[in-house]
Amino acid sequence: MPELDSTVKNVVNETIEPMGISQIRIFAEKFAKIPGLIKLTLGEPDFNVPEHVKTAAIESIKDNDSHYSAQKGIIGLRVAISDYLNKRFEVDYDPETEIVVTIGATEAIFDSLAAIINPGDKVLIPTPTFALYIPIVKILGGIPVQVNTTDDGFRLTGKKLREVIAKEGADEVKALILNFPGNPTGFVYSKDELQEIVDVVKDKEMYVISDEIYAELTYGEKHISLAKLMPGKTILINGLSKSHAMTGYRIGYIAAPKGFVTNAAKMHAFVVTAPSNPAQYAAKEALTNGIDDPIPMKKIYQERRDYIVDQLNDIGYKTNLPEGAFYTFSKIPAEFNLTAIEFANKLAEEGKVGVTPGTAFGEGGEGHFRMSYASSMDDIKEAMKRLRIFTENLKN
């Protein structure tokens, strides 16, 4: 095994070097080593990819579809994405010029920020939220401005947004990142709440990156895309990982005005050239003939959600009913005198249940923990039994 030569030990990107990997992954990997632990950490659907979607990928391989696709993705998939977005969310995008197929939503987020940020630019990030936004902004030379939304029910209000922009300087803020349905909180913005945000940013020189990867997983009102209310300034991020249980296929996409997509597509081409063909044909099938595939999955998620939220509140962990996604975000009782990380470690070691500490999702997550109910009901029921015993022991 080669050892790093001493002459290059200090040749390193000084922005990346001090960064750790995602706390979500750290705790998931750490807890996986504990024998008998029930892991409710990762947002990984426990369903299989629908059979007709798998068949489409297999047929692509059999047809020797092994050459580079168009850099923005095969046109058939981009047409399917355009049709899907129009049918589901009443937004219109030209598949030729306004859609880019990416390696998951993560690449879409990176490409989008890379097309916006210059060194020193500020990006507003309401927290708690998806863990990767903050390090990506830093890597690109931007300044992430975390906006703690805990006191507002984990929602960014128009009032708070206006205050933050005024404080940070309207000419310095270049983007706002919204994630809804929310990870880790499961909240969903209503049309009125989105309109508040639109009213604040519509005359500002800033984009809104709207990460709507959980759009198919809402349990009450139908998801409303920000792009419907503000198409000219919204960068819509979505994909098939959560809706069709296709996490390993790594298909996401950007939908935005041509003037933005032109530069985002350049970054996409520099980073990955093009997505995998079999995965793209699978995604095309999912959005063409499998548009209703998420419905039975969502029904099962909702049953799990109702059970786990009832149990968490009964045991003593204040938990709001998630309106979307497949996570609960619970308050750690102050009497325990434990930070989120301390609580998660203690629960794993003593209670044999793996959860993600709220601090993995930014400053607004302290004092909370996330559980994923993208796991079997048997595992969830056993986890709740163990949590109850663990909690009783903590109190004694």
From TrEMBL:
Positions of the Aminotransferase class I/classII large domain: 37-387
GO biological process: amino acid metabolic process
UniProt family annotation: Belongs to the class-I pyridoxal-phosphate-dependent aminotransferase family.
Matches recorded under Gene3D superfamilies: Aspartate Aminotransferase, domain 1, Type I PLP-dependent aspartate aminotransferase-like (Major domain)
One Gene Ontology molecular-function label: transaminase activity
Keyword Transferase attached: yes
Origin: domain of life: Bacteria
Name recorded for this polypeptide: Aminotransferase
This protein's record includes keyword ATP-binding: no
EC code(s) of this entry: 2.6.1.-
Keywords: Aminotransferase, Pyridoxal phosphate, Transferase
InterPro entries xref list: Aminotransferase_I/II_large, AspAT/PAT-like, NHTrfase_class1_PyrdxlP-BS, PyrdxlP-dep_Trfase, PyrdxlP-dep_Trfase_major, PyrdxlP-dep_Trfase_small
